Amino acid sequence: MRYTFLSLLLACQLLSAQTEEELLKHFHSITANEVFAYAKTLSEPEYDGRLAGSPGYTKSAEWVTAHLKKWEIQPGYGNSYFKHFPQDYTTVKSAGRLSATLIDIKGNAIEKKYSFPEHYYPGSNSASGQVEAEVVYVGYGITAPKHQYDDYKNVDVSGKIVMIETRHPKLKNASEWNDWVDYAGSSIKLSNAVKHGALGVLYISKLASPGMKYHKELIYCHIDEKLAEELFFARQLNYKKVKEELKEKNKPQSISLKHVVSIAADTEYHPDGSYANVIGIIPGSDPKLKDEVIMVGAHLDGQGNLGELFPGALDNASGVADIMAAARALSNLPAPKRTIAFFFIGAEEKGLLGALEYANDPLFLKDKTVCYINLDMVGNGAGLYFGGGQSFPDIFTHFEKANEQYIHRPLKTNYLNRAYKGRPRTDGMALSQHGFRALSVHCTDRVKKLYYHHPADTPETLVPEIMEDVSKWLYLGLYSLANAESIDLNEKLKAE
């Protein structure tokens, strides 16, 4: 084992002065218990799901920075680890209620009551109160004059509840996300429903979604596709067929379903909340290289509490915990040549807001940022994935060799997909679209069941052993990269 680790030191150029013994000591100090404990703490009710804007999020950010301070990792913003931004939020006091009076084609009425979380989630930013009205299916819920497309054409939704799909049409002249960005966002769809006089929305996507904007006159919830199927079936209509026609024909398929639906929400809106991005740094020591920065980050916020806690253990206490353990171990080593920055991002679940704020006003110059490595949901799996490694092999090689020599996990990588035109789904993608060299770390070969934006996303669904190895991998790879004599940052393109 000693020979193997010494080979790693030589191959990765980890250090000249640092002894193998000390490097190995701090490597082994990272344990599954440590990493799991960080994730478990962040998932506790004390932090109330870490909703950006809320006191629970602020408390979680303070908990992280207390550790950074204890480890003598320097604050990124002068004397502070924080950069604050205003952010409204909504407290959901209970799961609310959802029921329906189904009217079949013969006019018979059937009373139905639905349950959380099986059938629906309350809207994270719903207005408080109750609405009871006829439900109208309006497809994508889009009005886009630019593309001569309108799901509300020839249907009256005034005073009614509309049922809306996610996504957008794929018209030949307007197929990419950028063509629809002004019309297809979930918040825009809610605004469009209000504009057309709707009083409520059934959004066909049973996910906690804090990024949807608050409208004081609109009550909404998220429903499972099976519930949508039931509403259609009661009218002897085939929901899957209608949805497929909506997708294939790219023409509105809106229809009044005649059922009367009741949505009740118990919420309190807070317009004056705030959140913070958190950055801690280990400054570089080399006079020529210290201004070059390697950033590693994970979003700290979660989905909050929808009348039941959404712990957000995998998404994304896991990524935060992985970085924290690596940061603690790195803080014990002599300063690397380049600066290493640990970025705990706020308001990802609100629409990548923290990453976008950083992109617009970065702490470190873009041309001095060697790369940003994003961790999101890195706590369930048996293998490792380094997104974008083939595009930047001079970066990837440090992580590849560390894994080959000491971690011994299956490792995959790929080229960055520069042709991707869809909506950015991660902080890394948001930064990439703003010109940063953004890479990512994931797990492969899932070991436990995934609960995405679900109250069952608890610490029990995490795999501590993979989290330990991710942290150790980061520890080795980041330190090796930060001490490299030179780094070729010319992007390698995938051969067609």
What is the terminal separation in angstroms? Answer: 42 Å
Q: What is the CATH homology-level superfamily of the largest domain? A: Zn peptidases
Low-confidence parts: 1-8, 10-18
CATH class of the largest domain: Alpha Beta
- Number of helix segments? 13
Average pLDDT level: 94
Quaternary state of this entry equals single chain
How many domains, in number, for the residues? 2
Descriptors for this entry?
496 residues; elongated; 13 helices; alpha/beta; Glucose Oxidase, domain 1; disordered N terminus; single chain; Aminopeptidase
What do these coordinates show?
The chain is of the alpha/beta class and 496 residues long. The chain has helices at residues 2-12, 20-29, 32-42, 55-70, 177-180, 186-195, 225-233, 239-249, 313-330, 353-360, 393-407, 427-433, 464-482; strands spanning 74-75, 82-86, 89-92, 97-103, 109-114, 120-122, 129-137, 143-144, 149-150, 161-164, 200-204, 219-223, 255-265, 267-270, 274-282, 293-299, 339-345, 369-375, 383-387, 411-413, 438-444. The protein folds into 2 domains: 2-87 and 273-482, Zn peptidases (Aminopeptidase); 95-267, Glucose Oxidase, domain 1. The protein contains 13 helices and 21 strands. The chain is elongated, with a radius of gyration of 25 Å. The model is unreliable at 1-8 and 10-18 (pLDDT under 50).
